[in-house]
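Before surveying the methods themselves, it helps to consider a single example record, giving the amino acid sequence and backbone structure tokens:
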Amino acid sequence: MTVILLLFCAYLIGSVPTAVWVSKGVFGMDIREFGSGNAGATNTFRVLGPKAGTFVMVVDMLKGVLAVRLAYLVSYYHNPEHLTQLVNLQIGLGLAAVLGHIFPIWASFRGGKGIATLFGLVLAIQPLVALCVVGVFLMILFLTRYVSLSSIIASIAFPILILYIFNEPEIFYRIFAIAVALLVVLTHQKNITRLLKGNESKVPLFKNRKDKN
């Protein structure tokens, strides 16, 4: 019962619609009616610019971190002997937050793709791996200014890091890393199509958001 309650709390945390509240509260618009229609950091970058996009991305990441930290509210998982169960619960809580981000109860179940919240999950469990992933993300973003492409490549780098660089022993975590890469690629099919056609929008990293170049 405790685990179920924690999973529900993690879902509620993930349901906080950062992009929707920022777009409505600050810009007087619903981000879901513009750009790709997603209530996530990528669309916020594209429509509202880097400042709003960065804020949304950071808060969405913190949702994943906070959800994972809920595991420490159960004293059973404080014992080092229960490390495997702890990691499994943390992944479950993080995924519940991602589910909340994608289907937010506070925003009519219309959310984003959950990439930033997924990153927050990894950040809370393995900070070093997360830093490597964000390094890949930022490098691709700096070179291309495509948030979607950066997310895809960073997600593919994640299982490579887990399986071959850090050699993670927990089988469930290894499966999770592979599943994340597949999920990100699958949820970015439209972005991939636009990238191949040259129609994907670039984020204005160093320019005003009204500058379309």
